């Protein structure tokens, strides 16, 4: 495990100490948990952004589905004859 030095604002340090005390954990443990969650969130946001760009590119290429087809498909969910997801014509 590596060591990293961080300068914290006084208010952040106080809140960190309070959380660590309440959880009966070290400040280092709390910081590791917080950073792990932050990094996971950043990865998820990056993946969502990539998916958004891919979707925009598909739409620009005309790979779209009419809204009425999507609504009909959604309305069929849970029905006896549930429809397959609509596909673009291209």
TrEMBL record:
Gene3D superfamilies per the UniProt record, alphabetical: Met repressor-like
Highest taxon above the source species: Bacteria
Coiled coil: none
BP terms from Gene Ontology: regulation of DNA-templated transcription
A Pfam cross-reference name: RHH_1
Limits of the Ribbon-helix-helix protein CopG domain: 3-42
Signal peptide (UniProt feature, chain positions): none
Official protein name in the record: Transcriptional regulator
Protein species of origin: Arsukibacterium ikkense
């Amino acid at each position: 495990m590596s060591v990293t030095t961080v300068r914290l604002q006084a208010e952040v340090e106080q809140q960190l100490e309070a959380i660590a005390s309440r959880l009966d954990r070290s400040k280092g443990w709390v910081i590791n948990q917080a950073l792990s969650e932050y990094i996971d969130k950043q990865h998820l946001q990056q993946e969502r952004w990539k998916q958004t760009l891919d979707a925009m590119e598909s739409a620009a290429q005309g790979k779209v589905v009419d809204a009425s087809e999507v609504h009909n498909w959604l309305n069929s969910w849970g029905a006896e004859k549930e429809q397959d997801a609509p596909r673009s014509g291209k």
